[in-house]
Amino acid sequence: MSKTKNRGFDSIAVLIVALAAVVVAVWQANLTRQHNRLTVKPFLDVDISVQEAAFLKIKNKGEGAALVTSFELKWDNKKFNDWVELFQAADGLNTVGLSRTFKEGDVIGAHEELVLCQLPTGASKRIGIIIVINYESIYGEPYTFRKKFSWGG
């Protein structure tokens, strides 16, 4: 009779160990998935550099590519699709040099730095501009980059 009881306890112990192993394996897989997502997370930032001219640059300081889903510029509660249109409306300037906008599907690679706009030097008044870029990681996780800066005057 005692052998039968021991077999019952042994079976229960084996079942508990097996269930614990499954729980640990699922938990470890979840942690690995979270780690993998963080290692390829994009992180956008802007910077103004002044050399011969003033340039507004966007940088992806993250480890993964940023897949752009939308891009817009805002000034005075109005939306613009490009820099020339924005500076023309804001201050009558047509002197925007090099400029870049993004469309859905564009990619900003990891550690990539791109010139968004050569800022015009003749702005007679201070213009408050908001840049909004919606983007995703390669896992489809949505992010929004929103930056307000002032230029001119």
Characterize the structure shown.
The protein has 153 residues and is α+β, with helices and mostly antiparallel strands. 31% of the residues lie in helices and 37% in strands. It has helices spanning 2-39, 83-91; strands at 44-50, 54-60, 66-75, 78-80, 107-108, 113-119, 127-136, 142-151. The strands form 2 sheets. Strands 3, 4, 5, 7 and 8 form a 5-stranded antiparallel sheet that branches. A 3-stranded antiparallel sheet has the order 1-2-6, with no helix packed on it. The radius of gyration is 27 Å and the shape is rod-shaped. 18% of the residues are buried.
Primary descriptors:
about 150 residues; alpha+beta; Immunoglobulin-like; 2 domains; five-stranded antiparallel sheet; three-stranded antiparallel sheet; 2 helices
